[in-house]
Design brief:
The complex is a heterodimer of chains A (460) and B (314).
Chain A lengths: L2 E4 L14 H19 L9 E5 L7 E4 L4 E2 L5 H17 L3 E3 L18 H6 L4 E9 L5 E9 L4 E10 L4 H17 L8 E8 L6 E8 L6 E2 L6 E7 L5 E7 L4 E7 L5 E3 L7 E6 L5 E8 L2 E8 L5 E3 L7 E6 L5 E6 L6 E6 L6 E2 L6 E7 L6 E7 L2 E7 L7 E6 L2 E6 L5 E6 L8 E6 L6 E3 L4 E7 L5
Parallel strand pairs in A: 3-5, 3-6, 4-6
Antiparallel strand pairs in A: 1-8, 6-7, 7-8, 9-10, 9-32, 10-11, 12-13, 13-14, 14-15, 16-17, 17-18, 18-19, 20-21, 21-22, 22-23, 24-25, 25-26, 26-27, 28-29, 29-30, 30-31
Chain B lengths: L1 H21 L19 H9 L47 H10 L3 H8 L7 H15 L2 H6 L5 H14 L7 H8 L11 H8 L13 H14 L15 E6 L11 E2 L6 H16 L11 H4 L1 E6 L8
Helix pairs in contact in B: 10-11
The chains are: A mainly beta (460), B mainly alpha (314).
Amino acid sequence: MVDRRPVPMFPTASENRVHTLPLSRRAALSFGAAAAAGVLIAPRRAGAVTLDITQANVQPMPIALPDFAAGAPGDADTAHGVTQIITSNLRRCGLFAPIDPAAYIEKISSPDPVPRFPDWRAINAQALVTGRITRQSDGRLKAEFRLWDVVAGQQAAGRQYSTSPDNWRRIAHIISDEIYERLTGEKGYFDSRVVFVDETGPAERRVKRLAIMDQDGANVRYLTRGEDLVLTPRFSPSTQEITYMAYGQGDPRVYLLNIETGQREIVGNFPGMSFSPRFSPDGQRVIMSLEEGSNSNIFVMDLRSKAMTRLTNTPAIDTAPSYSPDGTQICFESDRGGRPQIYIMPASGGSAQRISFAEGSYSTPVWSPRGDYIAFTRQAGGKFAIGVMKPDGSGERILTEGFHNEGPTFAPNGRVIMFFRDPGGNAGPSLFTIDIGGRNELRVPTPSFASDPAWSPLLS
Amino acid sequence: MRPGLTISCTGHVVVLAWGLVAFAAKPNDAPPVEPLPVEFVSATEFSQLTAGVKNAPKPAENPKPLADKVGEDKPVKQLAPKVADKPEITTDTTAPPPPKSEAKPEAKPDPKPAEKAETPKPAEVKPDRVAEELKKEEAKKPPKPEKKEPQFKPDQIAEQLKRDEAKKPAPKFDANQVAALLDKREPQRQVATAATLNGVAALGAPTGHAAQLSQSELEALRAKLISLWNPPPAVSANPDQYVVTIHIRLTRDHRLIGQPQVLTGGDGPLFEATRDSAVRAVLQAQPYDMLSQSTYDLWKELDINFNPREVFGG
């Protein structure tokens, strides 16, 4: 586990022996003066001219990330690696523009002294991250970082962590999340994982295995051996469990898998297929579709009591249910109107309301963890598109469109969607991310073909 | 007949009085539309500047003289003197002045008898007369100045000076006067254009907007801040909750005095990020040299509302 505690704005000698006290005092004084100036500002004049700024220039924020300092020469590689991961995370999220280190004027050798802000303003940096990685005497790794607001000339955040050395990548993701949250005002999503279906082998004899990796594609680990065909893995929002559909012996079934222990179990025991499972927001229930003749309906099962509750009862195919983040509503796909469309209904059952009305058919609806959007796959005109709409059906927009795009899943903060794209032909599918504004489409590196991604909640 | 007339008159008066009240023209409640300030050259700008400022300092009770040192009126050389300046010509209609007639008998007889008296022999009687005459003349002459003296008696002069001094107010210590005393420049009289005159005295109309930041200055300032403001995208969900108002004070060199003052309260990471983005924009916009020196009083303090509602197309 990772211990974390905030780094004080200016560490005292007792907290950090490397740091010299006079500097700290001087710095504290200068900032104290700045703070006093802010407080002592004269009361404003009533007749001051008022100006309204209603437009903005939204663009990636230029940020400087010099290599973290190494507490000892042996830590230099780790320090460099941590910096690289933070830089990559911030660049990939599309909201930051890391500045080329070759442009840096000041060489940062320690995160403690106040940087020379004019040097960083000169290269148009608006934020600066400094840090240090130290291996402590007990073998644990200590990581510190400070985030500086270069324009205002002050520290915006600072924290230190201590963890086991093999957790250094997670430290980098956690620091990335801190920076992201401080500068964008939203929770980050870097300290998270993605479970997906890894596909190897020729197209006619594809081996599909469940795999899990960090959201940036590192640390791939396989969860199944590939003897069963697996589909639609879904993360539990609160536990280290996933649920998925697999073709074992006979009909496809919904399984539950603990990714820490590897323990696997079938959810319920029903005649016929069960498919498209998904967890409730509290992780206590699994909602899924059960085959009933030529139709299917939506059921929810309490994982503790194993009690099944029917939510729909229609002579149609109702499937792909997904809970709203507050757990009061579900959205699902149904062809009760002719073509598959998206409906929402209360989580306890009741009347459903159709929210998608455009041409084509809609499938795989998934509710954002923020609650503001529902992402979907739309098939129209021989193309598959990934899009989002508000839960009332308004504000629909297509983020990407092509031969085959499918299976959207939201990042924990709801700002980014991951999906898989199959270019057709002999090539296989691969994973992509795109932000909910339709910008910054990026391929996620995977060892081989990959499909059906499912994003985990934040790990910490 | 009489009661009918009375009732009729009373009725008419009542109806008319009621009508006066009921149908009185309602005041026009439409708010007066304030004209947009438009920047024009010379004439308009000039008149705007001279129309006074709402928040101008009150004119001092003893306004500083418009000329720092006022010289005395200099007589102007008149190349062609006016007819009116000529001394009046009076015709000598009155009787000839008596002194002339008297002087002649005196002057003529005097030298002749004197010469005569000296040349022949020192006459016993005549010389006495001449001497007496001379003595008389001498005696007459000194009293003449004495006759004038009564007008300028030393005592009276002293008294007059004392009176004058008494009339003068006790000398106050006035910085302006000291400055004037120390001022060794030549007196000057050519100051006071309309701008300086009204700039001191006029407060302007209470609702006037005579001197305003021009549209082009405001637009340039707005454009600069827009280009620098980079709010976090997450505010797009509830933009109205994240309007940040920042108060800034500026020097004449177009730089900030102290730190920008955030007037909007709020908490949470998203508010902080939005607030910081607005503060960054204000800091980075230095120097504010799109604002002209002549309107410094208007932009020395600014309230800037950063409103993200329209930023993300909401």
